[in-house]
Amino acid sequence: MTPWLPLLLGAIIPIAIALLLWGLLRAITVEVEDEEALLVERFGKHVATLKEPGLHGLPSKLLPWVRLRRVSLRRDFLQFADVHVADREGTTVIVDVWIDYRIVDPVKAEYAVAQLQASLHSLVMHATLSLLGRRTFHEILCDRSELGELLTKDIRSDTERWGVSIELAFIQKVSLLPEVTTRILSTISARLGRARSELQEVGRLAVATIEAETSVKVATLLAEAKGQYPLAVGRAMAELGVRPKVLAAYNELYRLSLLRPHRATAFIGFEDEGMRAVDAAMLPQPPQ
User: Fold this and answer.
1) pTM for this prediction
2) Which has the minimum average pLDDT: 110-114, 215-219, 241-245?
3) d(C-alpha 166, C-alpha 99), whole Å
4) How distant, in Å, are the alpha carbons of 138, 147, 214 from that of 176?
5) Cα separation values, 83 from 62, 86, 178, Å
6) How far apart are the first and last CA of the chain?
7) Distance CA 133, CA 199 (A)
8) Over the stretch 218-232, which tens digit does the pLDDT of each residue have?
9) Per-residue b/e over 144-161, b at no fewer than 16 CB within 10 Å?
């Protein structure tokens, strides 16, 4: 016998014993993860539910008639894309519906309904069509949060019987068919054009009214001003009449202001038999 054989056996035997013990431990125990439930069935009948995370002893799992079912208790979601709904006015509305749910009773979720995902899909689709079919496109577009709450209340009673809690439901997107969208946009464009024309016409009428009122006020003020001018001149002349010299100087200045040198030449200071304007024009010019 070689000298290293005992050493090799001494190293292999503990490892083999450890692996055997580990395999035996794994064979008689089950591991439950966080937010997970383990359902134990015996001869097709549910006998136990393990929810506590960790390692649980279950020697009966070695028996062939014992079956284990794992059910996730984590929050999950369902998305329904392009759901076609006919609203109250007959318009085809396309919506996306988002559902957040969580299994709170794994026994009901596993045994009370045959196929949970398919049942939830049918329930949500029926509730969505019924809820949105009683409203118009405008109401669906503006009240999406309220409709999500109503949808949650509508399906909650059925999902509770299945051990499922609906935590959130909302309408994610609202749209129309392309031809309906084009027709609606054309209608909106026509209404906007008519409204713009009405506003422009109202604006023109308002501007014309303001201009007419302004013209009337200006004419009234001008008439009042023209009426005040002769009265003011009359008062000024009455005051000048008390001072004859000032009145004479004013008259002289007024007479001089009436002369227009670019049209005629006038000589002031000559008598009627004195030099005439024609004679003055014939006088020789002094040398430059």
Assistant:
1) 0.56
2) 241-245
3) 7
4) 12, 18, 52
5) 48, 10, 15
6) 160
7) 37
8) 988 888 887 777 777
9) eeebbeebbebbeebbee
